Sequence to fold (925 residues):
Amino acid sequence: MPVTQLSNAHYASLLEAKQSNLPGQDLDWLNRLRLQATKEFADGGFPSLRDEEWRYTNISPIEKKQFTLSDKAGDVDASFLKGILLDDCHHLVFVDGFYQAGLSSLDALPEGLVVSAISTGLAENEELIRSLFDSVVETPALGFINLNTALFTDGAVISIKEGVQVEKPIQLAFISSKDGALTVSNSRNLILAKSGSKASVIETYHGAEDTCYLTNVITEVVVEPNARLAHSRLQAESLQAYHVGGVYTRLDSNAIFKQYNYTFGATLSRCEVHAELGTASDCDLDGLFISQDQQHMDNHTRVNHAQPHAVSNEFYKGILNDKSKGVFQGRIVVAEDAQKTDAKMSNRNLLLSDRSEIDSKPQLEIYADDVKCAHGVTVGQLDDAAIFYLRSRGASEQMAKDMLTFAFANEMVERIKINPLKIKVLEELLKRLPQEGMKVEWL
Amino acid sequence: MAASNENLKDMIGQEYKDGFVTDIESESFPPGLNEDTIRAISAKKDEPEFLLEWRLEAYRHWLTMEHPEWAFVEFPKIDFQEISYYSAPKSMADGPKSLDEVDPELISTYNKLGIPLEEQMRLAGVAVDAVFDSVSVATTFKDKLYEAGVIFCSFSEAVKEQPELIKQYLGTVVSQYDNFYAALNAAVFSDGSFVYIPKGVRCPMELSTYFRINAANTGQFERTLIIADEGSHVSYLEGCTAPMRDENQLHAAVVELVILKDAEIKYSTVQNWYPGDENGVGGIYNFVTKRAECREDNAKVSWTQVETGSAITWKYPSVVLKGDNSIGEFYSVALTNNYQQADTGTKMIHHGKNTSSTIISKGISAGHGQNTYRGLVKIGRKAEGARNYTQCDSLLMGDQCGAHTFPYIETKNPSATIEHEASTSKISEDQLFYCMQRGISAEDAVSMIVNGFCKEVFKELPMEFAVEAQALLGISLEGSVG
Fold:
């Protein structure tokens, strides 16, 4: 039997084997969704290189590895956890796909903010969860979405009441432990920012070193009229891990959505950021990916201008070293009615080694005439004149290059408004782009 | 703006100027395609054995291929058994030796198109290898070109007289297995042009071919092969018009350019085939494979195209930059109006060191037109110092049309520098207002702005073509206000 068929059968069989372990098994509507997704997955399986959207990313290792579902959360070292949790945030911690109340800190939640894990909050928040679930994710579903719907074990559900401004950011920390080796954790996050509210959500992904696992996560976001949501994503998985993630957002009129996407980890990662824009809404998508060794990083974005007067701004930067490979695809779709749209997309890439590779696909699909759309892509290396300038000031060639590379990346880090997160991202940056004698504190 | 909208409708509603059918007894094959059809075509053209084998290989491979579905165009499924694969003006059987022997009706057809051969011989200094349906009926300036050592003749003639060149170069740029339509073309191509420019020769005149589709239900399968030997230079013009027809006609040509050391080819196209009526009925399907290979160092190729016709345009003139320091250029204006669809662009494939490429693409959509730019820039691992600059701009006129951009950028070399820019806009009220407050009518202002929009491409065209191209744009777009 070919690998794909074996793999389809394997992943589809997980539902039957593990159903008793999944949350919400007494809910008919959820069971129907899970069954439906399993069936679709069994037929369709994972995407292949022949799918236009996946032509640069080969996920056959995931098919061959045949990850299983873990039954419970493994142990996480306290010091490891300390390095992950951000100061001055509300925390939800998930280990191997299971919510860990003991590690989380959800006391002192302000009035009007609902934050809970799906597994523990399903009874209380069923209506909310049901209304959000599968409401933003785009169909026809892809293999990984089906897999997630069929098998998700947990995730966060967040709802911000009308007009409430949440001061502290909410961190969703997803951790894979050593015991989670060779398992897949499927998480599903649901976020609803009601009219006029304001909040900031941070997702972080970490894993035990040298452990191979698959993270398959979906976040569905609804931003109601005049609400404002900042969403950050730090992916620093183990270098042996696989990561497939998606952020699917719907913006109502005058809503504001700011997304910051930082990709550093995993041997193979793919991130989808999709946004559907309502009238006069405002959407920023920023991203930075730095790859080394044999890492493969794929960033896909899609901005759907469905209504008039919306503004979108997209800016992704990539730095590729060693034998790593990067992919960027951005797609802006402007519907017939979406007049006065203003959409911009920019992708800049820096190749540092002879063996690195970048494939970029910035796309515009426009059906309205009174619009302003532009995209730009550059691929290049460091500016010789800038290197010369630094060397004339006494920096060694290596030092000059390091400084310029760091500055190239730092532009994206500077955009972070939340200080603890900024420090964390800078730490990751310095790990990958070491600077002689430089310390995080100085920045 | 009401008045100018009226104007737009008037202008867009203009009848296709070059629509007429010449009544000539065609010697056509009945519709249908099988190995016998191919043998018959080959026999009819008295081809050597190797070419028949080559055609059959292509056909057998074509049978295993699926029709490509990825393009951003929609059209009903083509029944390849309903197409007649050979049609020759009957008087051709005797073979005209000079212009005097050419069927007078053909001559008058060209006169209607404004390209009287005898006039062109004297006036423009342009040699014309005119293709009337599938067989070349007249070749001019041959002697003069022979003096310079340039071979410019119909493909079938070249097969007879230069079989070794054909054998050496045919299918080396676009193989007979390359893609669905290229394979089909390889199997059934009827005729086309052949050009060989010998070492160090600068072709004394611009070479030009007028293509013309005439007999109903006859697919045109042209094959053009141009070889520029070391240090040579040639400029080649291709222009097309077609008579008005209600059935869709398929045109699947293949153009192969081989450029050797220090040589240069400039290939210009003005395509104005019948685009279908305002309801999208009829029109030509233009599915062409065009590719150039800069095989050796310092070679240069430049594609310039103005695509205003055809119901569907689906082509990507490409350049493979193998030689070091070789240069590829692509300049394009594509216009879609009514229900026209265009999915066009280019591929620049860099293998050699210090190779550079430039892509300038201008898309204009009006009516219900769908205009897509699709382009690939690929930098291979060994392409040290490769350089690409891409700019694709779209202009939208009217709220029913679409403009799409699908660039693919693949880089495997860190010393490569790639810049890509795209923008989409409409003619701004400010620009219009500025022109009009200077006393320029709305119509003239739009024409001025559109011509300005396309200027970067038009300036690459040879003089005669630039004039024709501007006129073509004018017919459909003057007076339109987005």
Observations:
- The mean pLDDT of chain B is 79.
- Chain B touches chain A through 36 residues (CB under 8 Å).
